[in-house]
Amino acid sequence: MEEKQLVKLAKDGDRRAFEALAASCAKEIYNLALRLCGDRHKAQDIAQDAFVNAYKSIGSFREDSPFSAWVRRIAVNAWKNTVRYEIRRYFTKHDSIDDNYESDDGEMKKQYASSDPPADKVLEDRQKNDEIHAVLELLHPDAREMIVLRDMEEKSYEEIAAMTGLNTGTVKSRIARAREAFKQKFIKMQGG
Amino acid sequence: MEHKKAYGLISDYIDGMLKGEQLKNFLAHLKTCKECGYQLDALKNAVQYAKSGRAEDLPVNFLATLSKRLDEADSKKAKMKFSWPVFMKVSGTVAAMLIVGVLVRQIYDTKTIKADKEWLEAESVQKPAVAERAKDTEELKSVKQGINMAALAPLKSEAPAAITYAKKKSAAPSRANMMKAEALPAAGMASKSAAATAYDMAQEAAPAAAVALEEKEINPFGREVYSGMNSKMAPSMKIIFKNNLIWKNAPGILEDNPWLEKVDFTRQMVVLVNAGEKPTSGYSAKINSIVMQETKIVVLYSETAPEKGAITAQVITYPYSIAIIPTSSKPVEFIRE
Protein backbone atom coordinates (compact mmCIF):
# COMPACT_ATOMS: atom_id res chain seq x y z
CA MET A 1 0.00 0.00 0.00
CA GLU A 2 1.26 3.44 -0.85
CA GLU A 3 2.30 5.88 1.82
CA LYS A 4 -0.51 8.29 0.94
CA GLN A 5 -3.13 5.62 1.45
CA LEU A 6 -1.58 4.61 4.76
CA VAL A 7 -1.54 8.21 5.88
CA LYS A 8 -5.21 8.59 4.96
CA LEU A 9 -6.11 5.46 6.90
CA ALA A 10 -4.03 6.55 9.85
CA LYS A 11 -5.78 9.89 9.85
CA ASP A 12 -9.07 8.02 9.96
CA GLY A 13 -7.86 6.29 13.12
CA ASP A 14 -6.43 3.09 11.64
CA ARG A 15 -3.79 2.11 14.15
CA ARG A 16 -2.29 -0.63 11.97
CA ALA A 17 -1.81 1.82 9.13
CA PHE A 18 0.11 4.11 11.41
CA GLU A 19 2.26 1.26 12.69
CA ALA A 20 3.06 0.36 9.11
CA LEU A 21 4.13 3.94 8.44
CA ALA A 22 6.25 3.96 11.58
CA ALA A 23 7.91 0.67 10.71
CA SER A 24 8.85 2.02 7.26
CA CYS A 25 10.97 4.84 8.68
CA ALA A 26 11.74 3.69 12.22
CA LYS A 27 15.37 2.89 11.45
CA GLU A 28 15.91 6.24 9.83
CA ILE A 29 14.40 8.12 12.75
CA TYR A 30 16.25 6.03 15.29
CA ASN A 31 19.61 6.68 13.58
CA LEU A 32 18.86 10.39 13.37
CA ALA A 33 18.14 10.44 17.08
CA LEU A 34 21.25 8.40 17.75
CA ARG A 35 23.46 10.81 15.80
CA LEU A 36 21.94 13.76 17.52
CA CYS A 37 22.19 12.50 21.07
CA GLY A 38 24.96 9.93 20.83
CA ASP A 39 23.27 7.55 23.28
CA ARG A 40 21.36 4.46 22.18
CA HIS A 41 18.91 4.40 25.07
CA LYS A 42 18.14 8.06 24.72
CA ALA A 43 17.90 7.66 20.96
CA GLN A 44 15.26 4.99 21.39
CA ASP A 45 13.26 7.21 23.72
CA ILE A 46 13.56 10.20 21.42
CA ALA A 47 12.53 8.20 18.36
CA GLN A 48 9.57 6.65 20.14
CA ASP A 49 8.50 10.00 21.54
CA ALA A 50 8.58 11.31 18.00
CA PHE A 51 6.34 8.51 16.75
CA VAL A 52 3.91 8.81 19.64
CA ASN A 53 3.64 12.57 19.08
CA ALA A 54 3.17 11.94 15.37
CA TYR A 55 0.42 9.42 16.18
CA LYS A 56 -1.36 11.91 18.40
CA SER A 57 -1.18 14.69 15.85
CA ILE A 58 -1.46 12.75 12.61
CA GLY A 59 -4.53 14.83 11.85
CA SER A 60 -2.36 17.91 11.48
CA PHE A 61 0.04 16.27 9.01
CA ARG A 62 -0.36 18.36 5.85
CA GLU A 63 1.25 15.79 3.54
CA ASP A 64 3.39 18.40 1.78
CA SER A 65 6.43 16.26 2.58
CA PRO A 66 7.03 12.54 3.08
CA PHE A 67 5.84 11.05 6.34
CA SER A 68 9.43 10.30 7.37
CA ALA A 69 10.46 13.95 6.88
CA TRP A 70 7.57 15.05 9.07
CA VAL A 71 8.52 12.58 11.81
CA ARG A 72 12.17 13.58 11.44
CA ARG A 73 11.22 17.16 12.19
CA ILE A 74 9.33 15.99 15.24
CA ALA A 75 12.33 13.92 16.32
CA VAL A 76 14.70 16.90 16.04
CA ASN A 77 12.33 18.94 18.20
CA ALA A 78 12.07 16.08 20.70
CA TRP A 79 15.87 15.96 20.90
CA LYS A 80 16.06 19.73 21.38
CA ASN A 81 13.61 19.46 24.25
CA THR A 82 15.82 16.78 25.78
CA VAL A 83 18.86 19.02 25.44
CA ARG A 84 17.04 21.90 27.06
CA TYR A 85 16.00 19.65 29.93
CA GLU A 86 19.56 18.40 30.36
CA ILE A 87 20.92 21.93 30.35
CA ARG A 88 18.49 22.90 33.06
CA ARG A 89 19.43 19.80 35.03
CA TYR A 90 23.12 20.60 34.75
CA PHE A 91 22.58 24.11 36.03
CA THR A 92 20.39 22.80 38.81
CA LYS A 93 23.24 20.57 39.85
CA HIS A 94 25.60 23.59 39.73
CA ASP A 95 27.61 21.70 37.21
CA SER A 96 29.07 23.70 34.36
CA ILE A 97 27.73 22.62 31.02
CA ASP A 98 31.16 23.31 29.56
CA ASP A 99 32.46 20.27 31.41
CA ASN A 100 30.67 18.17 28.87
CA TYR A 101 32.52 19.73 26.03
CA GLU A 102 36.13 20.08 26.93
CA SER A 103 38.29 20.60 29.95
CA ASP A 104 40.95 23.30 30.23
CA ASP A 105 43.78 21.12 29.03
CA GLY A 106 41.81 20.01 26.03
CA GLU A 107 41.30 16.49 27.23
CA MET A 108 37.95 15.09 26.31
CA LYS A 109 36.03 14.03 29.32
CA LYS A 110 33.30 12.09 27.64
CA GLN A 111 34.46 9.15 25.64
CA TYR A 112 31.76 6.99 24.26
CA ALA A 113 34.18 4.78 22.40
CA SER A 114 34.58 1.41 23.96
CA SER A 115 38.09 0.26 24.84
CA ASP A 116 37.19 -3.31 23.93
CA PRO A 117 38.16 -4.42 20.41
CA PRO A 118 35.21 -4.99 18.07
CA ALA A 119 34.24 -8.60 17.62
CA ASP A 120 32.42 -8.31 14.31
CA LYS A 121 31.20 -5.85 11.74
CA VAL A 122 28.25 -4.68 13.79
CA LEU A 123 30.42 -3.91 16.76
CA GLU A 124 32.94 -2.25 14.48
CA ASP A 125 30.26 0.04 13.12
CA ARG A 126 29.05 0.79 16.58
CA GLN A 127 32.53 1.68 17.72
CA LYS A 128 33.00 3.93 14.73
CA ASN A 129 29.71 5.62 15.43
CA ASP A 130 30.62 6.04 19.08
CA GLU A 131 33.82 7.82 18.10
CA ILE A 132 31.93 10.21 15.89
CA HIS A 133 29.35 10.77 18.64
CA ALA A 134 32.17 11.55 21.02
CA VAL A 135 33.26 14.41 18.77
CA LEU A 136 29.72 15.57 18.11
CA GLU A 137 29.06 15.57 21.81
CA LEU A 138 31.68 18.28 22.19
CA LEU A 139 29.77 20.63 19.90
CA HIS A 140 27.08 23.10 20.75
CA PRO A 141 23.66 21.49 20.09
CA ASP A 142 22.98 23.89 17.21
CA ALA A 143 26.27 22.95 15.54
CA ARG A 144 25.66 19.26 16.19
CA GLU A 145 22.24 19.52 14.58
CA MET A 146 23.78 21.03 11.44
CA ILE A 147 26.52 18.41 11.14
CA VAL A 148 24.06 15.57 11.61
CA LEU A 149 21.52 16.90 9.15
CA ARG A 150 23.94 18.07 6.48
CA ASP A 151 26.89 15.67 6.63
CA MET A 152 25.45 12.55 8.20
CA GLU A 153 21.87 12.65 6.98
CA GLU A 154 22.97 14.42 3.78
CA LYS A 155 19.98 16.73 3.66
CA SER A 156 20.00 19.70 1.33
CA TYR A 157 20.15 23.27 2.62
CA GLU A 158 16.49 23.69 1.68
CA GLU A 159 15.43 20.55 3.52
CA ILE A 160 17.31 21.63 6.60
CA ALA A 161 15.75 25.07 6.38
CA ALA A 162 12.29 23.51 6.18
CA MET A 163 13.07 21.16 9.04
CA THR A 164 14.51 23.77 11.38
CA GLY A 165 12.42 26.74 10.41
CA LEU A 166 15.52 28.77 9.52
CA ASN A 167 16.10 30.50 6.22
CA THR A 168 18.60 29.04 3.76
CA GLY A 169 21.18 31.76 4.31
CA THR A 170 21.22 31.13 8.05
CA VAL A 171 21.46 27.39 7.46
CA LYS A 172 24.45 27.95 5.13
CA SER A 173 26.36 30.07 7.64
CA ARG A 174 25.50 27.74 10.51
CA ILE A 175 26.77 24.77 8.56
CA ALA A 176 30.05 26.58 7.84
CA ARG A 177 30.53 27.45 11.52
CA ALA A 178 29.51 23.98 12.67
CA ARG A 179 31.98 22.32 10.32
CA GLU A 180 34.76 24.59 11.52
CA ALA A 181 34.01 23.64 15.12
CA PHE A 182 33.72 19.95 14.25
CA LYS A 183 37.04 20.08 12.38
CA GLN A 184 38.84 21.54 15.38
CA LYS A 185 37.43 18.94 17.77
CA PHE A 186 38.23 16.20 15.30
CA ILE A 187 41.85 17.35 14.99
CA LYS A 188 42.19 17.52 18.77
CA MET A 189 40.75 14.05 19.14
CA GLN A 190 43.32 12.74 16.72
CA GLY A 191 46.04 14.29 18.86
CA GLY A 192 46.63 17.20 16.53
CA MET B 1 39.97 37.14 -3.66
CA GLU B 2 40.92 38.07 -0.12
CA HIS B 3 42.09 35.29 2.14
CA LYS B 4 39.44 35.92 4.78
CA LYS B 5 36.63 35.75 2.26
CA ALA B 6 38.06 32.65 0.61
CA TYR B 7 38.47 30.99 4.02
CA GLY B 8 34.78 31.57 4.72
CA LEU B 9 33.79 29.93 1.44
CA ILE B 10 35.55 26.61 2.03
CA SER B 11 32.42 24.97 3.42
CA ASP B 12 30.32 26.18 0.50
CA TYR B 13 32.96 24.89 -1.90
CA ILE B 14 32.81 21.43 -0.35
CA ASP B 15 29.05 21.44 -0.85
CA GLY B 16 29.40 22.60 -4.45
CA MET B 17 27.57 25.83 -3.74
CA LEU B 18 30.09 28.11 -5.50
CA LYS B 19 29.29 29.01 -9.08
CA GLY B 20 30.71 31.09 -11.90
CA GLU B 21 32.98 33.98 -11.07
CA GLN B 22 32.94 33.23 -7.35
CA LEU B 23 34.15 29.68 -7.96
CA LYS B 24 36.81 30.89 -10.35
CA ASN B 25 38.16 33.44 -7.88
CA PHE B 26 38.10 30.93 -5.04
CA LEU B 27 40.09 28.37 -7.02
CA ALA B 28 42.57 31.05 -8.04
CA HIS B 29 43.09 31.98 -4.41
CA LEU B 30 43.41 28.36 -3.43
CA LYS B 31 46.33 27.87 -5.79
CA THR B 32 48.30 30.63 -4.12
CA CYS B 33 47.23 30.19 -0.47
CA LYS B 34 48.71 27.25 1.42
CA GLU B 35 46.71 28.05 4.50
CA CYS B 36 43.38 27.77 2.67
CA GLY B 37 44.57 24.60 0.99
CA TYR B 38 45.40 23.08 4.35
CA GLN B 39 42.06 24.16 5.83
CA LEU B 40 40.19 22.73 2.87
CA ASP B 41 41.85 19.35 3.33
CA ALA B 42 41.22 19.38 7.05
CA LEU B 43 37.56 20.27 6.61
CA LYS B 44 37.10 17.64 3.94
CA ASN B 45 38.57 15.04 6.26
CA ALA B 46 36.32 16.11 9.10
CA VAL B 47 33.22 16.02 6.94
CA GLN B 48 34.24 12.69 5.55
CA TYR B 49 34.72 11.45 9.08
CA ALA B 50 31.23 12.60 10.04
CA LYS B 51 29.82 10.89 6.98
CA SER B 52 31.61 7.70 7.77
CA GLY B 53 29.10 6.81 10.43
CA ARG B 54 27.00 3.76 9.70
CA ALA B 55 23.31 3.43 10.18
CA GLU B 56 22.61 1.05 13.00
CA ASP B 57 19.86 -1.49 13.19
CA LEU B 58 16.82 -0.78 15.28
CA PRO B 59 16.93 -2.13 18.80
CA VAL B 60 15.20 -5.50 18.85
CA ASN B 61 12.23 -4.40 20.94
CA PHE B 62 11.81 -0.98 19.32
CA LEU B 63 8.59 -1.65 17.42
CA ALA B 64 7.07 -3.73 20.21
CA THR B 65 7.75 -0.97 22.71
CA LEU B 66 6.38 1.60 20.32
CA SER B 67 3.21 -0.46 19.97
CA LYS B 68 2.78 -0.49 23.73
CA ARG B 69 3.27 3.24 23.91
CA LEU B 70 0.68 3.72 21.22
CA ASP B 71 -1.69 1.56 23.29
CA GLU B 72 -1.13 3.89 26.22
CA ALA B 73 -1.80 6.88 24.01
CA ASP B 74 -5.02 5.24 22.83
CA SER B 75 -6.20 4.50 26.36
CA LYS B 76 -5.46 8.06 27.41
CA LYS B 77 -7.41 9.25 24.42
CA ALA B 78 -10.32 7.02 25.40
CA LYS B 79 -10.23 8.37 28.91
CA MET B 80 -10.28 11.84 27.52
CA LYS B 81 -13.43 10.98 25.60
CA PHE B 82 -14.95 9.64 28.81
CA SER B 83 -14.53 13.23 29.96
CA TRP B 84 -12.45 12.35 32.97
CA PRO B 85 -10.61 15.64 32.74
CA VAL B 86 -13.88 17.53 32.91
CA PHE B 87 -15.02 15.37 35.79
CA MET B 88 -11.70 15.77 37.57
CA LYS B 89 -11.68 19.50 37.03
CA VAL B 90 -15.20 19.93 38.34
CA SER B 91 -14.76 17.59 41.28
CA GLY B 92 -11.37 19.10 42.06
CA THR B 93 -12.78 22.58 42.06
CA VAL B 94 -15.69 21.58 44.26
CA ALA B 95 -13.40 19.74 46.66
CA ALA B 96 -11.02 22.68 46.82
CA MET B 97 -13.89 25.05 47.52
CA LEU B 98 -15.24 22.78 50.25
CA ILE B 99 -11.84 22.51 51.88
CA VAL B 100 -11.36 26.26 51.77
CA GLY B 101 -14.86 26.76 53.15
CA VAL B 102 -14.30 24.34 56.01
CA LEU B 103 -10.95 25.91 56.84
CA VAL B 104 -12.36 29.41 56.79
CA ARG B 105 -15.27 28.29 58.94
CA GLN B 106 -12.95 26.64 61.43
CA ILE B 107 -10.77 29.70 61.65
CA TYR B 108 -13.84 31.90 62.07
CA ASP B 109 -15.32 29.62 64.73
CA THR B 110 -12.06 29.48 66.63
CA LYS B 111 -11.84 33.24 66.64
CA THR B 112 -15.48 33.65 67.64
CA ILE B 113 -15.20 31.17 70.50
CA LYS B 114 -12.04 32.87 71.68
CA ALA B 115 -13.66 36.27 71.47
CA ASP B 116 -16.73 35.07 73.36
CA LYS B 117 -14.55 33.56 76.05
CA GLU B 118 -12.54 36.72 76.45
CA TRP B 119 -15.71 38.72 76.50
CA LEU B 120 -17.25 36.66 79.25
CA GLU B 121 -14.06 36.79 81.26
CA ALA B 122 -13.94 40.51 80.82
CA GLU B 123 -17.44 40.80 82.15
CA SER B 124 -16.72 38.62 85.12
CA VAL B 125 -13.87 40.79 86.32
CA GLN B 126 -15.81 43.91 85.61
CA LYS B 127 -13.31 45.34 83.20
CA PRO B 128 -14.22 48.62 81.63
CA ALA B 129 -15.66 48.05 78.22
CA VAL B 130 -14.51 49.46 74.97
CA ALA B 131 -13.12 52.93 75.11
CA GLU B 132 -15.27 55.95 74.92
CA ARG B 133 -15.13 58.00 71.82
CA ALA B 134 -14.96 61.70 71.50
CA LYS B 135 -18.10 63.49 70.50
CA ASP B 136 -18.63 63.85 66.78
CA THR B 137 -15.53 61.97 65.81
CA GLU B 138 -15.23 60.73 62.29
CA GLU B 139 -16.00 57.24 63.50
CA LEU B 140 -19.17 58.36 65.16
CA LYS B 141 -20.22 60.02 61.97
CA SER B 142 -19.56 56.91 60.00
CA VAL B 143 -21.44 54.78 62.48
CA LYS B 144 -24.34 57.13 62.32
CA GLN B 145 -24.29 57.07 58.59
CA GLY B 146 -24.28 53.28 58.71
CA ILE B 147 -27.36 53.08 60.89
CA ASN B 148 -30.44 52.01 59.09
CA MET B 149 -32.89 53.98 61.10
CA ALA B 150 -35.89 52.22 59.67
CA ALA B 151 -34.52 48.88 60.75
CA LEU B 152 -34.05 50.00 64.30
CA ALA B 153 -36.68 49.46 66.86
CA PRO B 154 -36.95 52.88 68.45
CA LEU B 155 -35.91 52.99 72.01
CA LYS B 156 -38.89 53.00 74.19
CA SER B 157 -39.13 55.58 76.83
CA GLU B 158 -39.00 54.49 80.38
CA ALA B 159 -42.58 55.34 81.02
CA PRO B 160 -44.27 52.85 78.68
CA ALA B 161 -42.39 50.02 80.29
CA ALA B 162 -43.54 51.13 83.64
CA ILE B 163 -47.04 51.50 82.38
CA THR B 164 -47.01 48.06 80.87
CA TYR B 165 -45.74 46.72 84.11
CA ALA B 166 -48.25 48.56 86.22
CA LYS B 167 -51.06 47.48 83.94
CA LYS B 168 -50.07 43.92 84.34
CA LYS B 169 -49.96 44.26 88.05
CA SER B 170 -53.38 45.81 88.04
CA ALA B 171 -54.97 42.75 86.59
CA ALA B 172 -56.56 41.89 89.95
CA PRO B 173 -59.39 44.23 91.03
CA SER B 174 -58.08 45.53 94.28
CA ARG B 175 -57.05 48.66 96.03
CA ALA B 176 -53.58 47.98 94.94
CA ASN B 177 -54.70 48.12 91.39
CA MET B 178 -56.35 51.40 92.01
CA MET B 179 -53.17 52.74 93.47
CA LYS B 180 -51.20 51.45 90.53
CA ALA B 181 -53.60 53.13 88.20
CA GLU B 182 -53.05 56.31 90.09
CA ALA B 183 -49.38 55.83 89.79
CA LEU B 184 -49.53 55.76 86.03
CA PRO B 185 -49.62 59.48 85.41
CA ALA B 186 -46.59 59.89 87.56
CA ALA B 187 -44.80 57.26 85.58
CA GLY B 188 -45.97 58.64 82.30
CA MET B 189 -43.37 61.33 81.76
CA ALA B 190 -40.76 60.68 84.30
CA SER B 191 -38.87 57.55 84.96
CA LYS B 192 -39.18 53.94 85.74
CA SER B 193 -38.30 54.74 89.32
CA ALA B 194 -41.59 56.55 89.72
CA ALA B 195 -43.46 53.58 88.46
CA ALA B 196 -41.47 51.38 90.75
CA THR B 197 -42.35 53.49 93.68
CA ALA B 198 -45.99 53.18 92.74
CA TYR B 199 -45.50 49.48 92.38
CA ASP B 200 -43.88 49.22 95.77
CA MET B 201 -46.63 51.15 97.37
CA ALA B 202 -49.19 48.98 95.74
CA GLN B 203 -47.36 45.89 96.80
CA GLU B 204 -47.19 47.05 100.38
CA ALA B 205 -50.85 47.89 100.35
CA ALA B 206 -52.04 44.66 98.84
CA PRO B 207 -49.42 42.00 98.90
CA ALA B 208 -52.03 39.37 98.11
CA ALA B 209 -52.59 40.99 94.77
CA ALA B 210 -48.94 40.70 93.72
CA VAL B 211 -48.59 38.49 90.72
CA ALA B 212 -45.36 36.85 89.72
CA LEU B 213 -43.91 38.44 86.65
CA GLU B 214 -43.79 36.48 83.50
CA GLU B 215 -40.48 36.33 81.74
CA LYS B 216 -41.77 37.89 78.58
CA GLU B 217 -42.56 41.02 80.44
CA ILE B 218 -38.92 41.83 80.88
CA ASN B 219 -37.93 43.14 77.51
CA PRO B 220 -38.23 39.96 75.52
CA PHE B 221 -37.05 41.71 72.38
CA GLY B 222 -36.68 45.23 73.50
CA ARG B 223 -34.05 47.80 73.83
CA GLU B 224 -35.70 49.60 76.65
CA VAL B 225 -33.67 52.00 78.65
CA TYR B 226 -33.73 52.50 82.37
CA SER B 227 -31.82 55.41 83.77
CA GLY B 228 -31.22 56.51 87.31
CA MET B 229 -28.96 58.42 89.61
CA ASN B 230 -27.99 55.85 92.19
CA SER B 231 -26.37 52.76 90.82
CA LYS B 232 -24.08 52.73 93.87
CA MET B 233 -21.26 51.71 91.61
CA ALA B 234 -18.32 54.06 92.03
CA PRO B 235 -16.18 53.26 88.96
CA SER B 236 -17.12 54.80 85.67
CA MET B 237 -17.58 52.03 83.13
CA LYS B 238 -19.45 50.99 80.04
CA ILE B 239 -19.98 47.28 80.04
CA ILE B 240 -22.14 44.36 79.11
CA PHE B 241 -23.33 41.97 81.80
CA LYS B 242 -24.31 38.48 80.84
CA ASN B 243 -24.87 37.35 84.39
CA ASN B 244 -26.37 38.65 87.60
CA LEU B 245 -23.09 40.04 88.89
CA ILE B 246 -24.46 43.37 87.81
CA TRP B 247 -26.87 43.40 90.74
CA LYS B 248 -24.03 42.82 93.22
CA ASN B 249 -21.75 45.42 91.68
CA ALA B 250 -24.42 48.01 91.12
CA PRO B 251 -27.03 47.24 93.79
CA GLY B 252 -28.70 50.58 93.34
CA ILE B 253 -29.99 49.62 89.93
CA LEU B 254 -31.97 46.72 91.28
CA GLU B 255 -33.21 48.86 94.14
CA ASP B 256 -34.52 51.33 91.60
CA ASN B 257 -35.90 48.62 89.30
CA PRO B 258 -36.74 45.51 91.32
CA TRP B 259 -38.42 43.84 88.33
CA LEU B 260 -35.04 43.58 86.70
CA GLU B 261 -34.46 40.54 88.86
CA LYS B 262 -36.49 38.76 86.27
CA VAL B 263 -33.97 39.35 83.52
CA ASP B 264 -33.26 35.98 81.99
CA PHE B 265 -29.53 35.95 81.40
CA THR B 266 -29.83 32.85 79.28
CA ARG B 267 -31.58 34.94 76.65
CA GLN B 268 -30.87 38.50 77.65
CA MET B 269 -27.99 40.67 78.64
CA VAL B 270 -27.70 44.07 80.27
CA VAL B 271 -25.95 47.02 78.71
CA LEU B 272 -24.70 49.33 81.42
CA VAL B 273 -23.40 52.85 81.07
CA ASN B 274 -22.31 53.89 84.53
CA ALA B 275 -21.04 57.44 84.89
CA GLY B 276 -19.42 56.63 88.21
CA GLU B 277 -19.42 58.50 91.48
CA LYS B 278 -20.29 62.18 91.14
CA PRO B 279 -20.00 64.78 93.93
CA THR B 280 -23.30 66.52 93.26
CA SER B 281 -26.57 66.08 91.47
CA GLY B 282 -26.99 67.33 87.90
CA TYR B 283 -25.01 64.58 86.26
CA SER B 284 -26.66 62.05 84.02
CA ALA B 285 -25.96 59.11 81.76
CA LYS B 286 -28.20 57.88 79.00
CA ILE B 287 -28.13 55.19 76.36
CA ASN B 288 -29.48 56.89 73.27
CA SER B 289 -29.54 54.03 70.84
CA ILE B 290 -28.28 50.56 70.23
CA VAL B 291 -27.37 49.52 66.75
CA MET B 292 -27.26 45.83 65.95
CA GLN B 293 -24.76 45.64 63.16
CA GLU B 294 -23.72 42.56 61.28
CA THR B 295 -20.43 42.18 63.08
CA LYS B 296 -20.90 44.17 66.25
CA ILE B 297 -23.29 46.02 68.50
CA VAL B 298 -22.84 49.76 68.77
CA VAL B 299 -24.14 51.55 71.85
CA LEU B 300 -24.50 55.28 71.45
CA TYR B 301 -24.75 57.03 74.78
CA SER B 302 -24.35 60.44 76.33
CA GLU B 303 -23.28 61.78 79.68
CA THR B 304 -24.00 65.22 80.96
CA ALA B 305 -22.62 67.33 83.78
CA PRO B 306 -24.15 70.39 85.47
CA GLU B 307 -23.23 73.66 83.87
CA LYS B 308 -20.82 75.89 85.67
CA GLY B 309 -22.53 77.87 88.34
CA ALA B 310 -25.66 75.75 88.29
CA ILE B 311 -27.27 75.10 91.61
CA THR B 312 -26.93 71.45 92.49
CA ALA B 313 -27.72 69.34 95.52
CA GLN B 314 -24.60 68.44 97.44
CA VAL B 315 -25.17 64.72 97.44
CA ILE B 316 -23.11 61.94 95.94
CA THR B 317 -24.80 60.45 92.90
CA TYR B 318 -24.09 57.49 90.63
CA PRO B 319 -25.78 58.22 87.30
CA TYR B 320 -26.42 55.21 85.13
CA SER B 321 -28.38 53.96 82.21
CA ILE B 322 -29.10 50.36 81.35
CA ALA B 323 -30.78 48.54 78.51
CA ILE B 324 -31.87 44.96 78.17
CA ILE B 325 -31.13 43.39 74.82
CA PRO B 326 -31.15 39.84 73.52
CA THR B 327 -27.94 38.06 74.32
CA SER B 328 -25.32 38.04 71.62
CA SER B 329 -21.70 37.04 71.17
CA LYS B 330 -20.94 40.00 68.98
CA PRO B 331 -18.48 42.56 70.32
CA VAL B 332 -20.02 45.70 71.70
CA GLU B 333 -18.68 49.16 71.03
CA PHE B 334 -19.65 52.10 73.17
CA ILE B 335 -19.59 55.48 71.48
CA ARG B 336 -20.21 58.66 73.37
CA GLU B 337 -22.30 61.20 71.54
Descriptive account of the structure:
The complex is a heterodimer of chains A (192) and B (337). With 192 residues, chain A is an all-alpha fold. Chain A is globular, with a radius of gyration of 18 Å. The longest helix of chain A is centred in the middle third of the chain and has 26 residues, at 67-92. Chain A has 2 domains: 1-95, Orthogonal Bundle (Rna Polymerase Sigma Factor, Chain: A); 104-192, Orthogonal Bundle (Arc Repressor Mutant, subunit A), CATH 1.10.10.10. The relative contact order of chain A is 0.10. Chain A contains 8 helices and no strands. Chain B is α+β, with helices and mostly antiparallel strands. Chain B is built from 12 helices and 7 strands. Chain B has helices spanning 3-8, 10-14, 20-32, 34-51, 62-81, 84-124, 138-146, 158-169, 175-189, 192-205, 245-249, 251-256, and strands at 225-228, 237-241, 268-274, 284-292, 297-304, 320-326, 332-336. In chain B, strands 1-6-3-2 form a 4-stranded antiparallel β-sheet. Chain B has a 3-stranded mixed β-sheet with strand order 4-5-7, with no helix packed on it. The radius of gyration of chain B is 47 Å and the shape is elongated. The N and C termini of chain B lie far apart (101 Å).
Rounded mean pLDDT score of chain B: 72
Spans where pLDDT lies below 50 across 5 or more residues of chain B: 124-139, 142-223
Stated plainly, the CATH topology of the largest domain in chain A is called Rna Polymerase Sigma Factor, Chain: A
Number of domains of chain A: 2
> In total, how many domains does the architecture of chain B comprise?
4
Radius of gyration of chain B: 47 Å
Q: Quick one: how many beta strands of chain B? A: 7
Largest sheet of chain A: none
Radius of gyration of chain A from CA coordinates? 18 Å
> Strand content of the residues of chain B, in percent?
5-15%
The CATH architecture classification of the largest domain in chain A is: Orthogonal Bundle
Helical fraction of chain A equals 55-70%
CATH class of the largest domain in chain A: Mainly Alpha
